[in-house]
Structures are given as C-alpha cells and as structure tokens.
Amino acid sequence: MLAKQTPLTKQMLSELLRASSSKTKQLKKIHAVVIRTGFSEKNSLLTQLLENLVLVGDMCYARQVFDEMHKPRIFLWNTLFKGYVRNQLPFESVLLYKKMRDLGVRPDEFTYPFVVKAISQLGVLPCGVSLHAHVVKNGFECLGIVATELVMMYMKFSELSSAEFLFESMQVKDLVAWNAFIAVCVQTGNSAIALEYFNKMSADAVQFDSFTVVSMLSACGQLGSLEIGEEIYDRARKEEIDCNIIVENARLDMHLKCGSTEAARVLFDEMKQRNVVSWSTMIVGYAMNGDSREALALFTMMQNEGLRPNYVTFLGVLSACSHAGLVNEGKRYFSLMVRSNDKNLEPRKEHYACMVDLLGRSGLLEEAYEFIKKMPVEPDTGIWGALLGACAVHRDMILGQKVADVLVETAPDIGSYHVLLSNIYAAAGKWDCVDKVRGKMRKLGTKKVAAYSSIEFDGKIHFFNRGDKSHPQSKVIYEKLDEILKKIRNMGYVPDTGSVFHDVEMEEKECSLSHHSEKLAIAFGLINGRVGHPIRVMKNLRTCDDCHVFSKFVSRLTSREIIMRDKNRFHHFRNGICSCKEFW
DNA sequence: GTAGGGTTAG
After folding, report:
1. Residue A327: how many CB atoms within 10 A of its CB?
2. Are A59 and A90 in contact (CB under 8 A)?
3. What does the pLDDT average to over A282-307?
4. Which nucleotide is nearest to A48 if distance is taken from CA to C1'?
5. Any idea what DSSP says for residue A378?
6. What is the spatial distance, in angstroms and rounded to an integer, between the CA atom of A12 and the C1' atom of B10?
7. pLDDT of residue A433
8. Engineering a disulfide at A312: which of A215, A251, A280, A493 sits with its beta carbon 3.0 to 4.6 angstroms away?
C-alpha cells in the first residue's frame, strides 16, 4: 500500500530503518516493503536490516532475512556469526560455518574470531581442535586476534598446556593479548598462572593498564593474596593508571575475599562513586564473612538511597539470612523479589537454591523439600545439592538418600554428591552403605576433588595437600603442628574423628586427621607470619568439623586471628570463637 | 563496515 501511494526511495527506507533500529515490529514492516520493491539496491537495504536485527537479538528473523539474500557477501555471513555469538547461540554458529564450507564460501580474517568464540561457548574440545586446524590451513594463525581467541578457547577447555604453548608462540603479543590471557586464567580459576604471567609481562617490559589491574585484583581475591593485590594496586596508582570504578570495585571485592571486611568498609565509605556492583560486592562480601547484620543493614541503606538492587544483590541478602539462620527475614526478602513486578528481579534458580539452603540449614528439611516440589522452575543440581548439604548437616539419612538418588542420576560425575551421601551414612555408622557408595564411584569413574589449602607469604602462594611433605619447611611445620596439638589437648581439645565431613573427599583411615591441609597451612602461618597479623588460609573445599574446632583452640592458644576461607564462606577465629557460630 | 581484554553472582 505504502509503496503504491508514495514511491519510496532507497534513502527513505534507509532512514526508516535507522529510526526503527531497536523496534522489531517496525523492522518487520519495513522488510515487507523492501521485499516488494524492485530496487536494485535491495541487498544494501537488507544488509542494514540484518544488522539491526542482530543488534536487537532477533536471530530467527535475522536468519530469515539472510536466507532470502542472493549470494550474500562475506560481511553478511560475519554479521550473522556476530549475532549468534552475542546471543549465545553457538550451535547455530557451527551449523552456519558448516553451510558456509559446503557452499564453498571462503571465511576471512573476521570470520574466525566469531567461530572460535562460538566453539568456546559450545564447549566441545574436538570441534575446537578441528577448527584450529582450519585456521592454520587457511593461514590465519598468525593474526593476533584469531590467536588470542584460540588461546582463550583452549583455556576455557582446561587445556592449559595448549593455551600456554599457543600464547608463548604468538610472535607479536600486544597489551590486549596479554590482558585476554590473564583474564581467562582468572575466569577459569587459574589465578596462580595469571600471577605468573603478570610477572612475565613486567619482565617483558609490557606496560599494564586498568584491564590488567582488574584481572589481577580478582586473581588475588581468589588466591587470598591481599598483600600482592595491594602492591599491584599501589603500582597502578604510581604509574598513573586510570583507577576507575571497575578497578575500585575489584579492589573492594579482593579485600572481602581475603576476609578483610573492616578495610573493605573503609574503602567502600570513601569511594567517590558507587554503583550497584559496589553495593552488591559489599553485601555479598559481608554475607560470606558471616557479618549478616551488616549485610542486611547495608541493603536497607541502599534502598534508602533509592538505588535499585539487582539479582546479585538479592543473592547476597538471601545468603546473609541463610548464614545467620534468619528464616523469616529470608522469606520476606524472597517475597519482595516475587512481588516486585520487575522482570529483572524474578527469582532465578540460584535464588531458589538460596531459599532451600536457608530452610535446610535451619533444620526445616521437610519444608525445604516441599518448597522444591512447589517451585515454578525445574529444580537443577544446585537446588538439590543445597538440600543434600542440609541433610548432611542435620544427618537426615532418609531424605538424604532420596535426594542423592536424584543427583547421582542427573550428575553421576560430580564427586561431591557421592561424598555427601557417604558422609551421611558414615555419621549414622552405616559402613556397608559407605562401601557401596565408594564402589559406585569407582564403577562410574567419578573423580574426587583433592582438598588443598593455600597461604600467602613473602609474595608467594604456598600450597598444601593433606599429609603433604613436599614443602621445603615440611620438617619444621610438622614439629610445630605436634607442639600445638600437645598444647591444645591440655586445653581440652579432643580430635573429632566422627565429624560430619561436608563435601571434602572421603578420609582414608590410614591418613591422620591431624594432617589435614588447613592444619599444615596454619602451622606454616604460625612459623612464618608476622606476629599481630592474621593468618589467612584459603581452602578449595569445605573445612571439616575437626579443623574448625582445632582452629578455635589455636586462635586462643596463640592469640592470633585465623581467617579461613572455605568453598562456601569465611571463618574468622578470634580468641577461641568463630564468627560463623552454629550455622555453617 | 565486521574481530581479541575488566568488577558482584554461578
């Protein structure tokens, strides 16, 4: 109709497209008009339309437009690849790549970064390896951007040696390549490697920037290396690197992840600029450190300042309630989310898992189970896992078995679920059932995660496994440990051999309880740490009841503060008392 | 014209 009444020029349609760039409905109308026109420039209008659709994220429609085009140029293929990557549709990307090859269309240097990223998202290593071969065959392996994407892909696949080899063999490594590598190391939990490469970067005289600093602060938070992190931050200041709000947030988070809550609060109060991430970081940090009241007070303050919380803020609030056993408050905050009518605040699976954790931890196991059954979302392993954890704490074998059955069925390769069930049986003295679980794990080939603890000293991170004797100071460490154990026994410490282990791996009988990795790390800290400074120990799994009691005694005996971060939360031991009280 | 890097949660 429109076209008949007033002849539209190409320019007019182009203008219309620009004006409607974010409105899918209008885009569709314009598309219909374009299709009816006989413009020779039809393809250029369709190109513009395709770009807009990719931007809006309507990939189905974008594909339809693409398929209608006659012999689309490589730029258009790339536009579609970009859309698939941005909208996390890796499978579509791979199919498109296959189609491209089948049609004999040659990918160019812009194509590969998108396709490599898609394979990263897809998470299938053999596809990545074969794509790498294509890259080499087409002669694009020397391109810095393609190589950077490949390095990141291998790192995401946990192929550390391939990633490092590829990165090392890059002939020209600019700052972005370094930053990408360091960032992906941190994102994949390889912060010690990130630190190693940060040092290499300095050795190679590559000047870092604020991106590097953020990744490194995040790495130091993961490693619990407050001193190294602060050193890097100070260097950044001295070298006049722009310490924007992202850097400041990362620094705040590092302090909180190192258990340094008081210092973090000072930083937070002094921040010139604060956004929702700053507030959420602080609330989540307080919750992790067991300062639930502070977390909730901050949430109220945030609301009073008229700042909109996001879903992460609520995760912090709910976990604060959970750690403090504040069931009613938790329920109230959860209903606040439900009633908010804000699409961005609709409870997600993680929030449901938090609620299950809150109810379960407080001993309301049946209510937690009912809650799961009534949920409007399909429960995932995180939600069932929270209930299983609660069953382990409260030693509920009947429900524990039921939940573990579901979990082992859906995720047979995750060791911690088997371990939790086995701990429930062990606590009930059902050793035959414990053996059955172990047998099943062997049969399924389920891998146990080895427990380790780490502690920073003299700019280095020292790692300890259980019963570890590989440390150069090993002899002195064991002597120190024996000395402490003797002293605290006199104070009333009794090794808790019947303790309920959380998701730490099963203890072999021959391995002594007294040589758990966190005990070795604490002994190391007592030998080397400065008097008056807290001993910060990081543990990759949850700490056991016995190590918890041990740490309380040691903090009293030595008058040293021990800050222990385990997989879930912090324990601040001061003068024989732990901040986590009975809820952990 | 198109391609690689950062903060809370998981």
Report:
1. 18
2. no
3. 96
4. B1
5. -
6. 47
7. 86
8. A280
Query: Computed over its alpha carbons, how large is the radius of gyration of chain A?
Result: 28
Most distant pair of Cα atoms in chain A: their distance: 99
Q: What is the pLDDT of residues A298-342, one digit of tens each?
A: 999 999 999 999 999 999 999 999 999 999 999 999 999 999 888
Measure the CA–CA gap between A405 and A427, rounded to whole angstroms: 18
Q: How distant is C1' of B8 from CA of A418, in Å? A: 31
Phi, psi of A292 (to 5 degrees): -60, -40
**What single-letter amino acid sits at A538?**
M
Report the candidate in A255, A273, A277, A257 with the shortest Cα–Cα distance to residue A265: A255
Angle at A533 between CA A296 and CA A286, to 5 degrees: 10
Angle at A362 between CA A360 and CA A363, to 5 degrees: 65
Q: How far is the CA of A582 from the C1' of B4 (A)?
A: 48
For residue A462, what is the enclosing H or E element?
Answer: strand A460-465
- What SS3 class is residue A506? coil
Q: Which of A19-33, A262-276, A441-455 has maximum average pLDDT?
A: A262-276
Q: Is pLDDT above 80 for A439? A: yes
SS3 A260: coil
**DSSP, residue by residue, A82-124:** HHHHHTT-HHHHHHHHHHHHHTTPPP-TTHHHHHHHHHHHHT-
As a whole number of angstroms, the distance between CA A479 and CA A288 comes to: 33
Handedness of CA A278, A220, A159, A381 (dihedral sign): negative
State which residue has its Cα closest to the C1' atom of B4. A145
CA of A148: nucleotide with nearest C1': B4
Interacting residues of A26 by C-beta distance below 8 A, sequence separation 6+:
A16, A20
Residue A436 has pLDDT above 50, yes or no: yes
Closest-CA residue to A467 (of A506, A507, A505, A515): A515
- What CA–CA distance (Å, rounded) separates A314 from A142? 45
Token pair in block for residue A86: 């941005």
Decide: helix, strand or coil at residue A577.
strand
Strand B footprint nucleotides (protein C-beta < 7 Å): 1-10
Give the whole-number percent of chain A exceeding pLDDT 90: 72
Nearest nucleotide relative to A175: CA against C1': B5
Range A142-156 average pLDDT: 97
Average pLDDT of chain A to the nearest whole number: 90
**H-only helix segments in A306-377:** 311-324, 327-339, 349-361, 365-374
Rounded alpha-carbon distances, angstroms, from residue A333 to A293, A317, A338:
14, 8, 9
Could you tell me which of A575, A538, A579 has the C-alpha nearest to residue A560? A575
**Structure tokens of A438?**
């172990």
Contact assessment for residue A56 and residue A24, using Cβ atoms and an 8 Å cutoff: yes
- Protein residue at shortest CA distance from C1' of B10: A350
Residue type, A459: G
